[in-house]
Design goal:
2 copies of one chain form a homodimer. Helix content of chain A is 40%, strand content 13%. Chain A is an alpha/beta fold. Chain A has 2 domains: 155 residues, 3-Layer(aba) Sandwich (Alpha/beta knot), CATH 3.40.1280; 64 residues. The first copy, chain A, has a 7-stranded parallel beta sheet. In chain A, helix 1 links the parallel strand 1 and strand 2. The longest helix of chain A is centred in the C-terminal third of the chain and has 20 residues. In chain A, 36% of the residues are buried. Chains A and B meet through helix 1, strand 5, helix 5, helix 7 and strand 8 of A and helix 1, strand 5, helix 5, helix 7 and strand 8 of B.
Chain lengths: 270, 270
């Protein structure tokens, strides 16, 4: 049932957490779960007593190409059977449950899962059926409860959304993307020399056109412009464009013989 | 169109990020987006040129009770119109785009959004249409690009999933839940005195039944048991149960007159 050209979705070497859907109701939700797993780099899916049986074409239709995960999914009669070869079992449960057990946030769980992977231990993540969630007997099979957190005033969480959040945290826990960076395309962040060169060009043209004619205010005005042009990183390509803008503005009107419009008044222009 | 008994979903005081869906295609996805917003504590929804018009009953049907968000959603002809009163605009884009602009992870964006809220600045989060994502002209309206990160081998992200991840990060950025804790119910974590009391009971019974008869191995065996019983936190209630287990095991068979089964051999039993 795999689409041509779909992403290969091959699990990396070593253990990655197994998603166990306990008594899932709708095949569509199994499909969207597979998609969310693929988004977050999870590949192993086990189904405990899916209500409508398995396989179901509607799951593949909802998976947006995460077919290989569904192709490889296994069906189990009980939670015990689904987790028998796992070393650690985490259960997700958005609702408050009156059980005595360790509770982790999704983020802490992801860190723990990565650490278990380092130790080559096999882990399972239990997700309950859409409406009711995991039963007390299911929870008693898990060693740890995962609560995300999310808005307690509105905790109705779609199954695939629940999987998505944990898959996302799993992915991020091993990701080294810098939190903030300037994305450049075919150019580089400008050096301060290039920026100063542009400032020189701009100020020279502003002197020439009379914008900086107030000698007393001139240093402050130049400083203010400098603050603006250094607020964020600028690229060499953007500086070249700005050089062009200044050059064209300063001579364009004359060259094309267009009438000069009424100059806008600026706060410094009195 | 609001269900009776639905959560009130009233936005808290102050600014919370506005979700802007740009040219969304399916009303169902607008509904599931509202649900994901509610999960993560986002309340303000704006729609730019929804393909099928607005309002659409199918959105409410998919919102699982997040009706108030849909009831209050506004429709706009353009991105410029939808963000005119906003101070900062972040655009989500899972696909690589060849633009020069700052890129943040979802986590960094959430921190930034919380910080902007502190400064009482209004923020918008742009999400593109389901298939194509935001166009270059849309991106040029944003000051920051948000890339989550997620598995680059499978970046087909459902619209509501995309909203979910950012809403989740927004919620977590202001959440103080301890990463790991033992959830107790009508009981407390046991003191070391209570634990020692139980160990005394256990060891006395093990002495009485002969399990610790090898004097040379006895100290090590007791230490090993102690390591096991102190591995995780235990509650006073669990200790009471364990006291009962030890007491009943040590006298139960005799009292009920049942035959003693063949004793299992242990590594220490030679």
């Amino acid at each position: 049932m795999r689409e041509e050209g779909a992403a290969p979705l091959v699990a990396p070497e070593g253990e990655t957490p197994i998603v166990v859907l306990v008594r899932p109701q709708l095949p569509e939700n199994i499909g969207t779960t597979a998609r969310a797993m693929a988004n977050g780099g999870l590949f192993h899916l086990r189904l405990v007593a899916p209500r409508e049986g398995w396989p179901k074409e509607r799951a593949w239709a909802a998976a947006s190409g995460a077919d290989r995960i569904l192709d490889a999914a296994t069906v189990h009669a009980s939670v015990d059977d689904a987790i028998a070869d796992c070393h650690r079992v985490l259960a997700t449960c958005p609702r408050p449950r009156h059980v005595i057990m360790p509770v982790m946030t999704a983020r802490a769980a992801a860190t723990e899962l990565r650490s278990l992977r380092e130790r080559n231990l096999r882990t399972a993540l239990l997700f309950g059926p859409e409406r009711a969630g995991l039963e007390a007997e299911d929870l008693a099979r898990a060693d740890t409860l995962v609560r995300y957190p999310l808005n307690p005033e509105f905790s109705s969480l779609n199954l695939a959304q629940a999987v998505m959040v944990l898959a996302y945290e799993w992915w991020v826990a091993a990701d080294g993307t810098p939190p903030v960076r300037l994305q450049t395309h075919k150019t580089e962040v400008a050096t301060r020399g290039s920026l100063e060169n542009f400032m020189g060009h701009l100020v020279a043209e502003l002197d020439a056109c009379g914008f900086l004619r107030n000698e007393a205010k001139r240093p402050g005005m130049v400083r203010n412009l400098r603050h603006w042009f250094t607020r964020g990183e600028v690229t060499e390509q953007e500086l070249r464009t700005l050089h062009g803008v200044v050059a064209e503005l300063s001579r364009g009107r004359m060259r094309h013989g267009r009438p000069e419009p009424e100059a806008p008044r600026t706060p410094d222009d009195d």
